[in-house]
């Protein structure tokens, strides 16, 4: 598939994320310029990580033959799933608002919201593209089950990132320690609450978005 065809077929998603990212970064730079503070600069890094799942999905959309081989499909899906929690994770960055000064709290709320929404949509859009691929190989019911499983795993990933402070690449750099922390995390009630809350949010958002675009 040519790049222009890719942009045409996924124009709404690409344009939404592009505009959202540009506006978010510009507002962040404005804040840094006016205040001289680098507080919330981490939002730029978080947005970059959140866009990785969508970038992977677009790459596959452009070269769909890659997904035809089960081995490649499994490996790519695993890597994509590792980075997917970074998308909804930005929704938890509102916890930093208590560090904002009173005169900037409204601006910072708008700023974080812009980063969070753009990041969240990146995850939803990428999940929808992966659904398109998997419907080629599996029945619709299986794809729906897989979507539910991915949403829950993604929700748990948000917990691991926010409260355990794990990164996507820790699976490769510290596999043993990461595995232990992942298992132990299941012992905490908060882990289940965060997993179910974000899992349900992701599943509903993906389903509703898919329903609208298929009409």
Characterize the structure shown.
The protein has 215 residues and is mainly alpha-helical. The protein is 78% helix and 0% strand. It is globular and about 55 Å long.
- How many helices? The count is 10
Proportion of beta-strand residues: under 5%
Largest sheet data: none
SSE succession: HHHHHHHHHH
Structural class: mainly alpha
Distance separating the two termini: 24 Å
Inertia-based shape: globular
Poorly predicted regions = 211-215
- Roughly what percent helix? over 70%
Kindly provide the radius of gyration, computed on alpha-carbon positions and rounded to a whole number of angstroms.
18 Å
How many beta-strand runs? 0
In brief, what are we looking at here?
This protein has 215 residues and is mainly α.
Features:
215 residues, disordered C terminus, globular, mainly alpha, single chain
């Amino acid at each position: 598939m040519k790049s222009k065809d890719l942009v045409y077929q996924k124009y709404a998603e690409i344009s939404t994320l592009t505009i959202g990212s540009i506006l978010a970064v510009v507002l962040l730079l404005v804040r840094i310029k006016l205040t001289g503070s680098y507080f919330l600069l981490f939002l730029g890094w978080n947005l970059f990580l959140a866009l990785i799942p969508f970038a992977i999905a677009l790459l596959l959309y452009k070269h769909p033959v890659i997904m035809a081989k089960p081995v490649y499909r499994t490996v790519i899906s695993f890597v994509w799933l590792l980075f997917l929690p970074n998308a909804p994770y930005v929704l938890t960055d509102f916890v930093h608002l208590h560090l904002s000064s009173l005169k900037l709290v409204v601006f910072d709320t708008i700023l974080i919201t812009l980063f969070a929404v753009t990041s969240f949509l990146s995850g939803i859009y990428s999940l929808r593209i992966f659904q398109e691929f998997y419907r080629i190989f599996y029945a619709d019911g299986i794809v729906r089950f897989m979507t539910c499983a991915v949403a829950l795993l993604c929700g748990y990933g948000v917990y691991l990132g926010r409260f355990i402070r794990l990164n996507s690449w820790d699976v490769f750099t510290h596999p043993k320690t990461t595995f232990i922390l992942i298992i132990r995390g299941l012992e905490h009630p908060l882990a289940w609450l965060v997993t179910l809350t974000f899992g349900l949010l992701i599943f509903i958002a993906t389903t509703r978005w898919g329903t609208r675009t298929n009409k």
